[in-house]
Design goal:
α4 links the parallel β3 and β4. A four-stranded parallel sheet has the order 2-1-3-4. By secondary structure, the chain is of the alpha/beta class. Helices cover 44% and strands 11% of the residues.
Length: 106
């Protein structure tokens, strides 16, 4: 489902487990110091949608298309709980985006 980037808390994996099963954090998959390219390739090979606050993934998605799909949070400095609440509030939109064949980034 979601591969949560290092710029977001690894705690989101557990907090989002019911709403977004099979999600994981970059820390556990590729390591804390993994490059964006390594994260991109891992997400692509393992059918993840990248959840990030990093504009680099948005730009890469526009250049290369998908997979992987990218969800970029543009929310400034928010607490993990605030991000969790927004993700759950927008759960239906996120699932529709992940299933869409026409969008690569939201």
């Amino acid at each position: 489902m979601l591969l949560i980037d290092n710029n977001l808390s690894f705690k989101l994996v557990g907090l989002l487990a019911l709403a977004f099963p099979n999600s994981n954090h970059v820390r556990f998959c590729t390591g804390i110091s993994a490059s964006d390219l390594l994260v991109w390739d891992y997400a692509k090979k393992n059918d993840f949608t990248v959840l990030t606050k990093d504009s680099d993934f948005d730009e890469r998605s526009q250049l290369l298309g998908c997979p992987p799909k990218v969800i970029r949070l543009i929310c400034g400095n928010r607490s993990t709980i605030e991000i969790l609440n927004q993700m759950i509030f927008r759960k239906t939109d996120i699932f529709l985006f992940c299933e869409s064949d026409t969008e690569n980034c939201c």
